[in-house]
Every structure is written in structure tokens, then in C-alpha cells.
Amino acid sequence: MHIQPYLHFNGNCEEALAFYGQALGAKIEMLMRYRESPEPPPPGMVPPGMDDKVMHASFRIGDSVVMASDDCTGQAVSFQGFQLSLGVADVADAARRFSALAEGGRITMPLGKTFFAPSFGMLTDRFGVAWMVIAAPQ
């Protein structure tokens, strides 16, 4: 058994996937748009204008798979109550990944040495996803 995060975006999932590709080296493993569904959605489930939005995607960051889509409920998506923790090999990689994720976002705890790691910091990226970046102790 395993748990995989599933992120719902406000119509900008494809932009987020490209950002994570650039910032983290994420690789898209699967992407299906609403118009590509093999079965039509139940009436009223998908609002007009969603045909080219992402119905389902999965992408790999290192050894982890994250799933994502554009939310079709018509409600504003808000990521609350969780953070994705990104463990990296060393301080230099932590600085590189933290800086890339922080571009256009908001730093909540600057990257720095802590009692539990040589480098740790927290931020919310430009899409509203909260991250913790931690370098493995040497």
C-alpha cells in the first residue's frame, strides 16, 4: 500500500506541470485532457470550457509519483493543511530547488541550517502548493 498526493489546480495544471519540470526535473508520465476521456462525463459534471484542461496527469519527481488535474467543480481550489516535503541529497541541491520553487511564490521559512538538517526551509509556490525542502544530514 502507498499514498500518492493528488493536486487539483484552478485551470492552470499544465502550467504547474511545466513549472515543476523546470524547478524539480519532474517528468510527466501521463496526461489526459477532458476532451480525451473515453466516456462522456455525467451531465453537468464538467462545466463548459474544460475540454482542453487536464482531466488527469501523473508526474514523477525523483522516486515519487504525484497526480494532478484541473478542478472541474467550479469552486476555487485552495491547498490547505498539508505540505509536500522534498528531500534532497545536499545543501547545494536544497538551495537550487528551494530557489526554483520560490520563484513567484512566498517563502515562509528561509532556507538555513537547523538542529535536524544542514539545510531546511518552507515556502508556498506560485500555485499555492506548500513545500518543505530538506537536505539529508551528511
From TrEMBL:
<dbReference type="InterPro" id="IPR029068">
    <property type="entry name" value="Glyas_Bleomycin-R_OHBP_Dase"/>
</dbReference>
<dbReference type="Pfam" id="PF00903">
    <property type="entry name" value="Glyoxalase"/>
</dbReference>
<protein>
    <recommendedName>
        <fullName>Glyoxalase/fosfomycin resistance/dioxygenase domain-containing protein</fullName>
    </recommendedName>
</protein>
<dbReference type="InterPro" id="IPR028973">
    <property type="entry name" value="PhnB-like"/>
</dbReference>
<feature type="domain" description="Glyoxalase/fosfomycin resistance/dioxygenase">
    <location>
        <begin position="7"/>
        <end position="133"/>
    </location>
</feature>
<dbReference type="InterPro" id="IPR004360">
    <property type="entry name" value="Glyas_Fos-R_dOase_dom"/>
</dbReference>
